[in-house]
Amino acid sequence: MTGSDDERILREAFQDLRRDTRERGAVPDAHAMLARARAAAEAATTPSAVTDPAPTSTWARRSGWLSLAAAAAVATLMFVDRAGHADREFERLVSAYSTDVTAGAWRSPTDALLRTPGVDLGAIPSFGSSMVGPGSRPDAPRPEAPREAGPGRDS
Amino acid sequence: MSPSNLSSDELEERLASLHEDSFGWACSCCGWNETEAEDVLQTVYLKVISGRARYDGRSAFRTWLFGVIRFTALELHRRIRLHDEKIDGLAGESVAMGQAPSAPDDALVEARQAERLRAALSGLSDRQAEVLHLVFYQGLTVREAADVMEVSVGSARIHYDRGKKRLRALLSESEAGGGAE
Question: Which of B136, B138, B170 would you mutate first to test chain A, the one with the most A CBs within 10 A?
Answer without folding.
Answer: B136
